[in-house]
Amino acid sequence: MPFKSVNRPIILGVVGDSAAGKTTLTNGIAMILGPDKVVTLCTDDYHRYGRAERRKLGVTALDPAANHMDILEQHIQLLREGKPILKPVYNHAKGRSEPAAYVEPREYVIVEGLLGYTTRALRTAYDVKVYLEPDEDLRVKWKVQRDTALRGYGEKEVLASLARRAEDSERFIHPQRTFADMVVRFYPPPGNSDETGAHLNVRHTLRPTLPHPDLTPILEAGVKKGLRLELARDIDGKPVDVLEIAGDVDDARVQALEDHLWNLIPEAAHLRGNVGRFYDGTDSPATSHPLALSQLMITYHIVKAALGHHAI
Q1: Is residue 312 included in any domain, yes or no?
Q2: Could you tell me the residue range of the domain that residue 19 belongs to?
Q3: Virtual CA dihedral for 50, 80, 302, 293, nearest 10 degrees?
Q4: Per-residue pLDDT of the chain (312 residues; tens, 9 = 90+)
Q5: Is residue 242 a contact partner of residue 229, using CB atoms and an 8 Å limit?
Q6: Is residue 288 a part of any domain in this protein?
Q7: Is residue 3 part of a domain?
Q8: CA end-to-end span of the chain, whole Å?
């Protein structure tokens, strides 16, 4: 049964450095909302130069000047207005652009990539903004795993690329964190630095730019082991709520929190389904409770936006 009351696509932004987990997170959210109701835009497609040209010019893909930011702004605004776009396509395996693709808007638009919050025009287009900042050693492992398996690089090439891009990461990617409504950080549990998948912990920094769900009934009911919610100060000194979810949280506690979140958005009960699915280092399907709850927390805000609660 439809529940939207906002007569335009709802737009979610997911920004983070290379291999921060953006695609894994957004694929799960799309599965909850329904793949037929979601169109995903990757900002990588708006690279101005191919891989060989960037090397020749001495620029990285993280530099806004190496991307068609003006076209990205136009395309997100057109989709927000319910109009189709002719989207560029960047082939990571070949390191160059390919023929553009015709894309029609759907009920939900997910924009994920490196530079989604770079300009004011982009930032004002989203209903919900998420920033991913995994533990840096973890991100390096994820990038090596992905780029060697899917993008045709050797491990030494990946590590060299990370070194070349470090300055631009600090200059162009990290400052976008300040614009997010929700910052998501996956990190290995203490004493298990080799963990890269299902048993990672996650920390949600929840900023007051959106009304986040009230989780106190669950915590007060005794569902605390593996879950913790506290008031804290963000890196800029501003007050935030911090939700910690342990990688070893048990099924009963996860189920209680999932049920609580779904009960807060009864209009979307028909969207309940499997969340938290991903492919591990051996390319085998696996499930992560922290990932599932992260996807559900974000979906909660998308649903609230669709109901007009987060209207901008």
Answers
A1: no
A2: 10-306
A3: -10
A4: 456 788 999 999 999 999 999 998 999 899 888 889 999 999 999 999 999 999 999 999 999 999 999 999 999 999 999 999 999 999 998 999 999 999 999 999 999 999 999 999 999 999 999 999 999 999 999 999 988 888 778 889 899 989 999 999 999 999 999 999 999 999 999 989 999 988 999 999 999 999 999 888 777 655 557 888 888 999 989 999 999 999 988 888 888 888 888 888 887 877 776 565 565 555 666 678 899 889 999 999 999 999 987 655
A5: yes
A6: yes
A7: no
A8: 25
Instruction: In whole angstroms, give the CA distance from residue 39 to residue 72.
Output: 15
CATH at 47: 3.40.50.300
Structurally, the chain folds into a number of domains equal to 1
Q: At what angle do helices 155-168 and 136-150 cross, to 10 degrees?
A: 130
Q: How far is CA 84 from CA 39, 57, 104, 251, in A?
A: 11, 33, 4, 42
Tokens linked to 279: 């492919």
Secondary structure (DSSP) of the chain: -----SSS-EEEEEEESTTSSHHHHHHHHHHHH-GGGEEEEEGGGGBSS-HHHHHHHT--TTSGGGB-HHHHHHHHHHHHTT--EEEEEEETTTTEEEEEEEE---SEEEEEESSTTSSHHHHTT-SEEEEE---HHHHHHHHHHHHHHHS---HHHHHHHHHHHHHHIIIIIGGGGGG-SEEEEEEPPTT-TT--STT-EEEEEE-TTS-----HHHHHTT--TTEEEEEEE-TTS-EEEEEEE-TT--HHHHHHHHHHHHHH-GGGGGG-----EEE-TTS-EEE-HHHHHHHHHHHHHHHHHHTTTT--
The residues facing 40 across adjacent strands are 110
Structure tokens at 250: 């048990």
Residue 51 covered by a domain: yes
